[in-house]
Specification:
Elements lengths: L1 E3 L4 H12 L5 E4 L2 H7 L4 E4 L7 H7 L5 E4 L12 H18 L4 E5 L11 H14 L4 E7 L2 E2 L4 H10 L3 E5 L4 E2 L2 E2 H13 L6 E4 L5 E2 H7 L9 E5 L1 H11 L9 H7 L8 H7 L15 H35 L2 H10 L7 H18 L3 H25 L14 H14 L9
Parallel strand pairs: 1-2, 1-4, 2-3, 4-5, 5-6, 6-11, 7-10, 8-13
Antiparallel strand pairs: 9-12
Helix pairs in contact: 1-7, 3-4, 4-5, 6-12, 7-11, 12-14, 12-16, 13-14, 14-15, 15-16
Length: 426
């Protein structure tokens, strides 16, 4: 079996499930080296959805009986457009499968996909579905609803929302019918061996429910939001429009439109495929995992505030040093700290510029860890200098020196969270 998008959430889970059942699986990915490091011994084929090589892929599919397209992106990026990932890539994949005489294809689409849908995501999925249905063999289009997985991007976002004391939701939200990732891949595995699969099937959980109820079901019972804060649609649209400019945004106008439309379907066909009842959303999160997931969600919610407060501290310090605090007093402090008089003015401006650079640099992801480490070094250096030559600040009633301790602790926490092998929440 060949799985395109084998590095994604669904593709990885499906590959694991099929390999446990004894199937030989070929993974189609853009970055072959990364996949080989991630899954040593796996059979991997390069397949770039943005620049598909149909002839080479057809050769790779020789002898394959089933092709699954599990690739998808919810947001476009510089190297991942909806047209490439949802249309051009899948259509080329199905063309190669037809050339290689593959018997069956499975297109993992999305519930709500339609050529006249209100969002580019849904419309692009529908165009890919149209290519799948034109496949000369046995095509199956699977349309999942919201898919829950502990480490899924949408699930982590919902966990973050559920951790808030008030649940902020747009005034207009429709019902959802979430399905657990395990139930999705179990059903897909059954579908791949089904003697007469349906041409289209909705992959949905056992019941439809309001979005607020779903989010509350993800939190421990004693920590669920006490009330739902309904945000007027006009305000929600304005907020979504503003958020689209933020890096790594998790919510935008298209997501708002999708939340306003029902994302539900008939659970009976998927239940029959599983030959059991799908998991209820109330059981998605194991009781033992709930406290840890909640802590991670709270931490992820707090990280932007922690970064902003630390950045503001450094930027405000630079501003006060240059424009507020009397320059003569600043120069006097530098002289008392044994800075040569000729270098004191340049030292003042250089220190303020460094503070400003550290406050701004932490917002550039690739500079962030370096900025934290320099911040720690600067605070320690200032503390030593002040402790040696300006000891009266240790006895200052506002405690400027002792306040360096929580500042250092906060910076160390952020440094750890950004570490390559650290927590990396948020």
């Amino acid at each position: 079996m060949f799985i395109a998008g084998g590095s994604g959430l669904i593709g990885t889970a499906l590959a694991d499930r099929l390999e446990r059942s004894g199937h030989a699986v070929i993974l189609g990915v853009r970055d072959v080296d990364a996949m080989v490091r991630r899954r040593p011994g796996a059979q991997v084929v390069r397949f770039d959805f943005a620049a598909p090589d149909v002839e080479a892929l057809a050769d790779a599919l020789a002898g394959v009986d089933v092709v699954v397209n599990a690739a998808g992106v919810f947001k476009e990026g510089r190297q991942q457009s909806f047209d490439d990932i949802h249309v051009k890539g899948p259509c080329s994949l199905f063309q190669a499968a037809a050339t290689a005489s593959v018997a069956r294809i499975v297109q993992i689409s999305a519930l709500g996909a339609d050529l006249l849908a209100p969002t580019p995501y849904w419309r692009s999925k529908a165009r890919g579905d149209r290519c799948a249905r034109a496949f000369p063999g046995m095509p199956v289009v699977v349309r999942p609803s919201l898919v829950y997985a502990d480490d899924g991007a949408s699930s982590l976002l919902f966990q973050r929302l559920a951790a808030l004391p008030w649940l902020p939701l747009p005034a207009t939200t429709a019902d959802v019918q979430p399905i657990h990732l395990d139930d999705l891949v179990d059903g897909l595995a059954a579908l791949l061996e089904h003697p007469d699969p349906p041409p289209q099937i909705d992959a949905v959980g056992p019941r439809a429910m309001p979005l607020a109820s779903y989010l509350q079901a993800l939190s421990p019972a004693d920590a669920r939001p006490r009330r739902v804060l309904r945000i007027p649609d006009r305000v929600a649209r304005a907020a979504a429009g503003a958020l689209r400019w933020l890096p790594g945004r998790a919510f935008d106008s298209d997501a708002l439109r999708m939340l306003a439309l029902p994302n539900t379907g008939d659970a009976a066909p998927w239940r029959a495929l599983l030959q059991r009842e799908p998991r209820d959303p109330g059981t998605f999160v194991a009781p033992a995992r709930r406290p840890a997931l909640r802590r991670d969600a709270i931490l992820a919610n707090m990280l932007p505030l922690l970064r902003a407060s630390l950045s503001l501290t450094w930027l405000y310090t630079a501003y006060v040093s240059l424009f507020v605090f009397p320059q003569a007093a600043s120069l006097d402090l530098l002289l008392r700290a044994h800075v040569p008089a000729a270098l004191a003015p340049a030292s003042l401006y250089a220190a303020a510029a460094l503070d400003a650079a550290l406050g701004l640099g932490m917002w550039v992801r690739r500079w962030r860890r370096a900025a934290y480490m320099v911040q720690i070094g600067v605070v320690l250096f200032y503390s030593v200098v002040i402790g040696l030559w300006l000891p009266e600040y240790w006895a200052h009633p506002y405690g400027p020196m002792i306040k360096n301790l929580p500042l250092l602790a906060l910076t160390l926490l952020l440094l750890w969270l950004e570490a390559p092998r650290g927590h990396r929440a948020g």
